[in-house]
Amino acid sequence: MAFSLDIQSSGGFKTRERRRGFLLAVPALIWLAFFFIAPLLIVVVVSVLTRGSRGAILLPLTLEHYQRILSPVFLPVFGDSLWISFLTTVFCLLLGYPLAFFISTRRSKRMQSFALFLVILPFWTNFLVRTYAWRVLLGSEGTINVTLMNLGVIAQPLELLNTDFAVLIGLVYGFLPFMVLPIYSSVERFEFRLVEAAHDLGANDIRAFLRVVVPLTLPGVIAGCILVFIPAIGSFITPDLLGGTSGIMIGNLIQGQFKGSGNWPLGSAASVVMMGIVMMGLLLYVWMGRRAAR
Amino acid sequence: MANTITKPTRTARDLSISIDQGKVQRDLAVRRAGKIGIIVEPIFAYFFLWAPILLLVIFSFNDSRSVATWRGFTTQWYSNIFNDVLGNEARFSTGLMIGALGNSIVVALAATVIATTLGTMVSLSLVRGNYPGKSIIDGLLFLPVVIPEITQAVSLLLFFSTIFQFLDSSFGIRATPGFGTIIIGHVVFNVSYVAIVVRSRLADMNPRLEEAARDLGANEWRTFWRVTFPLILPGVISGALLAFTLSLDDFVITFFNSGPGTTTLPVFVYGLLKLSVTPEINAISTLILVLSTVLIGVSLLLQGRSGAPS
Question: Among residues of chain B, what percentage have pLDDT more than 90?
Fold first, then answer.
C-alpha cells in the first residue's frame, strides 16, 4: 500500500513539475508580449488613424494611408524593393549554390569546416562596417574607379555608388551566407552514389544534375531563398549607405516617415504592408517545409 | 536476303556511332566545364566575401588618403582618431567616440544579463516542461529573428512615445528615450538568440543525469544548480557572448530608440560613415571589425571546448 502510494505520488509529482515548467517561460513571454507584440499591434492601430496638425495622431479611423501607398508616389518604392530583393535572391543563389557544393565536397572534415568558417566569419562582423567597405570600393575616388583609370580602361570615373547596382551588390554581399548555410546542410546529406547510379542508367552530367541533384537539394535552396529574401525586403542600412537618393527601398520610406518630417500613420501603414510581405514569405516556407516532410 | 539485312544494320550502326561521338564529346565538355567551374566560382565567391574587408583594413594603414594605391605603412590615421582629427570633417571628437563606446558597453552588458536570464529560463521550460501551447511559444520566440529590424525599431518608437505621452498626461511624469528604451529593445531580439543557443545545449544533455540527482534526494533547485546548470554553462556563456556581440553591433533599433546623450558606438559611427570616405573612418571601421572578431572568436572557442565532453 505504502509502496504503491510512493510510486504514484512520485509519478504525479514529476508530471506536476513538468506542467509547472511553464512558469519558467513566463518572464520571457511577458517581455515579448509587452515589448514585441504590443508595439506591433500599436503599429497596426496607428496605420488606420488620422494624422492631425503637428503630427498628432487622432481618430477617426481611415484607410487613406494605405491608399497613399498604392498611389504612384509610393507604389514604385514597393515595386523596386520587391524587384531588388528578388534579384538579390537570384544572385545569392547563383553564387551560393556552387559555393555550398564546393564546401561540402572537401575531403576532410577539417577542410570543410574551415571553408564554411571563411563564409561565416565576415558575416559576424559589424554590418555597418561591412556595408561601408563597399563605399570605399565603389566611390568615384574609390578602389575600383581609380584602379580602372590608372590602367587606362576608363577616362572618367564610373558612377557606381548611389545606384541600384550598388544596393544590389551590398545586399548580395550582406546576405550570401544565409543562402550558403541551408544549401550546405542539404548538400552535405546528399548521397553522391545516386549520381553514379544515374550515370550507370545512362544519364549525362546535366541530366543527372537536373533530375537527381537539384530535386534532392531543393529544400535547402528554398530555405536559402526565403532566408535571403526576407531580410533583403526589410533592409534599411544598405540602401541608405549605398543607394543615395536613387536606391530608396521600403525601409528608407519608413525611416523617412519616422525621422524628420514624419507622417507616423503613413510610416506605420508601410510597416504593416512590409510585415505582410514577410509573413507571406514565412508561411510559404512553413508550407514548403511541411510538403517536403511528407 | 543477306543483302537486305546487312544494309539497314550498317546504317543503323553508323548512325548510332556518329551520334554517340557527338554526345560523348559534348558530355565530356560539360564535365570539364563543370570541373573548372566548381573550382573557379568558389574562388570568385571567397574573393567577393573577403576583398572588401581586407581592402578596408589594408588601406587604413596606407600612407596616403588614396584607397587605390599603396604608398607605405603608417599608423597616423589611428593616432588621428585619438587626437580629435578626422580628415576634413570638423565635428569629430575622440571624447564623444569614447563616450559612445562606453554607452554601448553599458547597454550591451545590461541587455545581455537580462536576455541570458530570460532566455535560459524559457529554454529550460521548453525542453524539460510538458504543457500545452509549447509550439506557440516556439513560434513567438522565432518571430523577433525574422521580423525586419526596421519594423521592430519603429514599433518600439511608437510604443514608447504612446506610453510616455500617457505618463505625462495622466501622472505628469516626464520620461524620455534613453538607456532604458534601448536595453528593452535589445533584450527582445537577444532573448530569441540566447534561447536558440541554450536549447541546443540542453537538448544534447542527458536528462537521466537530472533524474539520477532527483532519485538521490536532491530537490529541483539543488538539481538545477548542481547538475543542470554546470552542464549547460558553456551554452549559456556562448549565448551570452552572442547576445553581447549583437547588442554591441546593433544599429537600427538603437537609432530609433536612443535619446540625447545615449548615443551608442554604431549610431555615432553611422554619422561618420555617411560622410565621405576618409582613412580615419577606415581606421575606426578596422577597430570595430577587430572588436567583433575577438568577441566571436572567444565565443567559438568556448563552444568548441564544450563540444568535447558530455
Answer: 17
A-B contacts at Cβ under 8 angstroms: 253
Nearest to A31 among B149, B188, B293 (CB): B188
Amino acid at position B198, single letter:
V
pLDDT tens digits, residue range B33-46? 888 888 888 889 99
A237 within a domain of the structure (yes/no): yes
Q: Is the pLDDT of residue B13 over 80?
A: no
**How near does any CA of chain A get to the CA of B286, in Å?**
8
| Mean local confidence (pLDDT), A3-28 | 63
Respond yes or no on whether ipTM tops 0.90: no
B23 in Cβ contact with A204 (< 8 Å): yes
Give the domain range for residue A280.
Answer: 80-293
B187 forms beta bridges with none
Mean pLDDT to the nearest integer, A152-178:
87
- Round to whole Å and give the CA distance between B308 and B310: 7
Least Cα separation, residue A259 to chain B (angstroms): 8
User: Whose CA is closest to A186, among A227, A233, A156, A222?
Assistant: A222
Enter the C-alpha cell of residue B231.
552542464
Q: Is residue A35 part of a domain?
A: no
In chain B, the domains with their CATH numbers are 95-307 (1.10.3720.10)
- Given an 8 Å threshold on Cβ–Cβ distance, is B158 in contact with A19? no
Q: Provide the 3-class DSSP secondary structure of residue A226.
A: helix
A72: distance to nearest CA of chain B, Å? 23
- Name the residue with higher pLDDT: B233 or A140: B233
Predicted pLDDT of residue A106: 83
Number of domains composing chain A: 1
